[in-house]
UniProtKB/TrEMBL annotation:
<dbReference type="InterPro" id="IPR048897">
    <property type="entry name" value="Nol11_C"/>
</dbReference>
<feature type="domain" description="Nucleolar protein 11 C-terminal">
    <location>
        <begin position="362"/>
        <end position="672"/>
    </location>
</feature>
<dbReference type="InterPro" id="IPR042859">
    <property type="entry name" value="NOL11"/>
</dbReference>
<dbReference type="GO" id="GO:0030490">
    <property type="term" value="P:maturation of SSU-rRNA"/>
</dbReference>
<protein>
    <submittedName>
        <fullName>NOL11 protein</fullName>
    </submittedName>
</protein>
<keyword id="KW-0804">Transcription</keyword>
<keyword id="KW-0539">Nucleus</keyword>
<dbReference type="GO" id="GO:0005730">
    <property type="term" value="C:nucleolus"/>
</dbReference>
<feature type="domain" description="Nucleolar protein 11 N-terminal">
    <location>
        <begin position="1"/>
        <end position="289"/>
    </location>
</feature>
<keyword id="KW-0805">Transcription regulation</keyword>
<dbReference type="InterPro" id="IPR012584">
    <property type="entry name" value="NOL11_N"/>
</dbReference>
<dbReference type="GO" id="GO:0003723">
    <property type="term" value="F:RNA binding"/>
</dbReference>
<keyword id="KW-0698">rRNA processing</keyword>
<keyword id="KW-0010">Activator</keyword>
<dbReference type="Pfam" id="PF20998">
    <property type="entry name" value="Nol11_C"/>
</dbReference>
<dbReference type="Pfam" id="PF08168">
    <property type="entry name" value="NOL11_N"/>
</dbReference>
Length: 674
C-alpha cells in the first residue's frame, strides 16, 4: 500500500457504473460487484476480463452486498429485502418484495450471531429514522423506530452484537454519540402482529476536545470500551482541521488524536485490527491493538515504567511517512511495554512481544556498529526462532537497519547475509524499502534478481532501474557474476553453430513460403540470426526474465520505459522477439525451465515497450529489420490461427469421436471438412 502497487484491476464497460462497493466472498474467494443497480458480476483473482465474468441480471435494485467469514454473502435490496447469494443465484429473476416503501436506506451492517447471519439496516422517512433487524436464513424481520433527539439527526451508524444484544451507536449532528440496545428476539406470531417499537437511546459520549467540539463525520467500534471517530475541529479564522480520534467510552476520555493535514474522504473503515482511511490521495492503513481498559490507562497515569503521555502509545509512522526504524533510543526505551493500555502500531513497526535475550531495540543498537561476524551471528539467531506473527516484521525492521548502515558506510555490505534473508524469508518491498536501492548502488545483480522474483509489490520505478542496469552491464562482467540460470538455461541458444537445424522448423504456421505473399520486402539475411540465436548471453537472459516476472501497472511503468536509451530498448525488444519465436515453436507455447517467462508476459512487455519507444524504433535504422520481422511473424501467426478457427468445429467433432471409439477396435475413418 505504501508503494501504491495495484495487484489487480478490473473495469466495467464505458457507460456502466458500479453502484455498490465490491466485496470478497470469504467462502469462495471470489469478488462480487453490482453495476447499473441490477447486474451482478462474480469473478476470481485470475480472471482478467470483467466482461467475461459471471453475469446475472436481478429483478430489483441492490443497495449493498455484505460478506461474512462464516456466513457467506448477503444481498440487501433497496426495498429492504435480503437474500443470501446462493438463494439468489438459483433464480436471479425471482420476485423481490418491497418492505420499506417511501423509506431510504441510510446504513447497513452484517454480523454473525452463533451460526446465524444477522443483517441490520437503518432507514429515513420524513426525518424519522427506523431500524430493521433481519435473520435471512430464518426469514425473521423486526422493525423499530428511533427516538427523536430534538432537531439533531443521525449522521452515521455502526453496530456490534454481544450476548444476543445488538448495540447500535449513532453519531448525531449535535456532536454526540448515542447508544441503542436492541435484544435479538425469537419470532412468535404475537410479535409479528405488534406495532413497531420505539427504541430509546442513551448518551454515550460528548465529542469535546480541549474545549472545542469535534464535528464527527464517521465512527467505528474498536472493542466494547473504545471507538474511533473521524471528524474536524474548528479553528478561529482558519479552515477546520480534520483528525482521527480514539475514545474510551467506559471512562468518557479521549485516548489520542492525530491531525490529518491532507484531508480525508470522510470515510473510516476498521477490519481485523486495522484502520483504513483515505489521507490526501493515499490509502493509509494503521494497525492497532486494544488492551483491557483501566482508569489509569484512560487518564494516562499508569505506574512504574509505563508512565507515558497520551501520544507515546500511539505510533503514527504510517501517516507521517517516517522511516521503518525510528531512533534507536526510543526503540529501546519504549519498546511497546504498555501492555495494559490500547496501543496503535503502524505496520512498519510491528515488533512487539519478541522473545529471547535481546529485545528488538537492543538488537538494532547492537547492529548499528557491530562487525560483520557479530551481525551474521545475531541474525542467524533471529532467523532460527520459531515463527511468530511478528517475526517477519522484525526481520524486515532489521534488514532496513542494515541498509541504513550500508547507506552511511558504503564499505559495509553483508552481501551473502542479505541474499540468504531474501531467499529464505517471505519478505516484501514495503517491509525493507531501501534494500533494492542499496543493491542497485552495490551492483548486486543476484540480489536484485531474487527480489524481482520474490517481492510482489516492487514499485515500477525500481523495476525500470533494474531493467536498465541489467541491459547496460557487459556480457564479460556477467560471466564472473553468480546468477540463477534456471529460468533460461533450458532454451537459450547462445552459439550459432548449435542452431543450424532450427532453420527448418515451422513455428506455429510460420514459414518462408507462407510469408512470401504477405510482404514484398525481401527478408534480410541477418534475419536468421535475429530469430534463431539469443541476442544476449545466458546470464543476462536470466536477469531479464526476472524483470518479466515482476508485477507492474502499465500506467506507472510506461513513463519510465520512455526514458530507456534507444540501444537498450532495441536490445530488449530483440530478446523479447527471440522469446516470442521460441514460445511459438512449442505446441503449448510454454518455455521449459523454472520461472521461465510465459507467452502472456512476453506479449505484454513487447506491447508495452513498443508503446513507449515506437517513434524511436521507427527512426532507428538498426530497428527497421527487427520491426519488419516482428510484423511478418505476428501476421503469419494471425493467418495461421484464423485457418485453425475455420476447422475448429471439425476438430471438436474428431475429439468427440475419439472418446466414443472403443480402445481395442482398429478402424480407418474419413472426416470430410467442409
Amino acid at each position: 500500500i505504501s508503494d501504491q502497487k495495484p495487484l489487480g484491476c478490473w473495469s466495467v464497460k464505458h457507460g456502466q457504473i458500479l453502484t455498490c462497493p465490491v466485496v470478497c466472498n470469504f467462502e469462495t474467494h471470489e469478488y462480487i460487484a453490482v453495476h447499473d443497480d441490477k447486474v451482478l458480476r462474480i469473478w476470481k483473482n485470475e480472471d482478467m476480463n470483467l466482461d467475461k465474468a459471471f453475469k446475472a441480471t436481478l429483478s430489483a435494485d441492490v443497495y449493498r452486498i455484505h460478506s461474512l467469514p462464516q456466513g457467506g454473502a448477503l444481498v440487501l435490496f433497496r426495498g429492504g429485502a435480503v437474500r443470501t447469494l446462493d438463494v439468489l443465484l438459483e433464480a436471479p429473476q425471482q420476485e423481490i418484495e418491497n418492505l420499506i416503501s417511501a423509506e431510504a436506506i441510510r446504513w447497513s451492517g452484517a454480523f454473525m450471531e452463533g451460526q446465524q447471519p444477522v443483517l441490520i439496516f437503518t432507514t429515513e422517512k420524513d426525518r424519522n429514522f427506523f431500524v430493521y433487524v433481519q435473520k435471512p436464513k430464518l426469514s425473521s424481520l423486526h422493525k423499530y423506530k428511533l427516538e427523536q433527539q430534538g432537531s439533531a439527526k443521525p449522521l452515521c451508524f455502526t453496530a456490534h452484537i454481544t450476548n444476543q444484544t445488538v448495540t447500535l451507536l449513532c453519531l448525531y449532528s449535535n456532536n454526540s454519540v448515542y447508544q441503542v440496545l436492541i435484544p435479538l428476539q425469537q419470532d412468535t406470531e404475537e410479535e409479528e402482529e405488534k406495532e413497531e417499537e420505539i427504541l430509546s437511546k442513551s448518551l454515550l459520549l460528548n465529542l469535546s476536545v480541549s474545549g472545542a467540539v469535534l464535528k464527527g463525520i464517521s465512527l467505528v467500534v474498536l472493542d466494547k470500551d473504545h471507538i474511533a471517530v473521524l471528524g474536524s475541529l474548528p479553528e478561529p479564522g482558519k479552515k477546520p482541521k480534520e483528525c482521527l480520534t480514539i475514545w474510551n467510552t467506559k471512562f468518557q476520555t479521549l485516548q489520542t488524536s492525530k491531525e490529518l493535514p491532507l484531508g480525508t474522504s470522510g470515510q473510516l473503515w476498521c477490519y481485523e485490527e486495522k484502520f483504513f482511511l483515505i489521507h490526501g490521495k493515499v490509502l493509509t492503513v494503521i494497525m492497532y491493538k486494544c488492551e483491557t481498559s483501566s482508569l489509569a490507562a484512560a487518564v494516562g497515569k499508569l505506574k512504574d515504567s509505563q508512565t507515558f503521555d497520551v501520544s507515546s502509545f500511539v505510533n503514527w509512522n504510517t501517516l507521517e511517512d517516517e522511516e521503518l526504524v525510528v531512533s534507536f533510543q526510543s526503540q529501546e526505551s519504549v519498546a511497546l511495554k504498555a501492555e495494559s493500555r490500547m496501543s496503535l502500531r503502524s505496520n512498519r513497526s510491528t515488533v512487539a512481544g519478541q522473545s529471547g535475550p535481546l529485545s528488538v531495540g537492543q538488537l538494532l543498537l547492537r547492529l548499528k556498529d557491530a562487525s560483520n561476524y557479530v551481525v551474521e551471528t545475531e541474525l542467524k539467531k533471529l532467523m532460527a526462532k520459531a515463527p511468530t506473527p511478528d517475526l517477519q516484521a522484525t526481520i524486515g525492521c532489521v534488514v532496513t537497519a542494515l541498509t541504513d548502515r550500508c547507506k552511511r558506510n558504503p564499505k559495509f555490505y553483508p552481501q551473502n547475509l542479505l541474499q540468504e534473508i531474501v531467499e529464505t524469508r517471505d519478505l516484501s518491498y514495503s517491509l525493507c524499502p531501501d534494500l533494492m536501492a542499496v543493491a542497485l548502488e552495490q551492483k548486486d545483480l543476484h540480489l536484485l534478481q531474487m527480489c524481482l522474483e520474490r517481492f510482489p509489490d516492487i514499485p515500477e520505478e525500481i523495476t525500470y532501474a533494474c531493467l536498465k542496469a541489467f541491459l547496460s552491464v557487459s556480457e564479460d562482467h556477467l560471466k564472473s557474476v553468480d546468477v540463477n540460470l534456471d529460468s533460461a538455461i533450458c532454451y537459450v541458444d547462445v552459439e550459432l553453430n548449435d542452431m543450424e537445424v532450427k532453420t527448418e522448423i515451422l513455428e506455429n504456421g510460420f514459414g518462408e513460403e507462407m510469408d512470401q505473399d504477405m510482404c514484398d520486402t525481401k527478408i534480410p539475411q541477418e534475419r536468421q540470426s535475429v530469430g534463431e540465436s539469443c541476442p544476449v548471453g545466458l546470464q543476462k537472459a536470466a536477469l531479464l526474465n526476472a524483470v518479466l516476472h515482476s508485477a507492474y501497472t502499465e500506467t506507472f511503468l510506461l513513463p519510465h520505459l520512455k526514458n530507456l536509451p534507444a540501444q537498450q530498448a532495441v536490445l530488449f525488444l530483440r530478446y523479447l522477439y527471440y522469446l516470442y519465436v521460441k514460445c511459438s515453436e512449442k505446441v503449448n507455447t510454454t518455455l521449459p525451465g523454472i520461472r521461465s517467462p510465459t507467452i502472456n508476459q512476453i506479449m505484454d512487455w513487447m506491447c508495452l515497450l513498443l508503446d513507449a519507444q515506437f517513434t524511436v524504433m521507427v527512426m532507428l535504422p538498426e530497428a527497421k529489420d527487427l520491426l519488419s520481422n516482428l510484423h511478418k511473424f505476428v501476421r503469419a501467426q494471425v493467418r495461421f490461427y484464423s485457418e485453425l478457427n475455420k476447422i475448429e468445429g471439425s476438430l471438436r467433432e474428431l475429439q468427440r469421436l475419439n472418446h466414443l471409439r472403443e480402445s481395442q477396435t482398429y478402424s480407418i475413418e474419413v472426416l470430410e471438412i467442409i
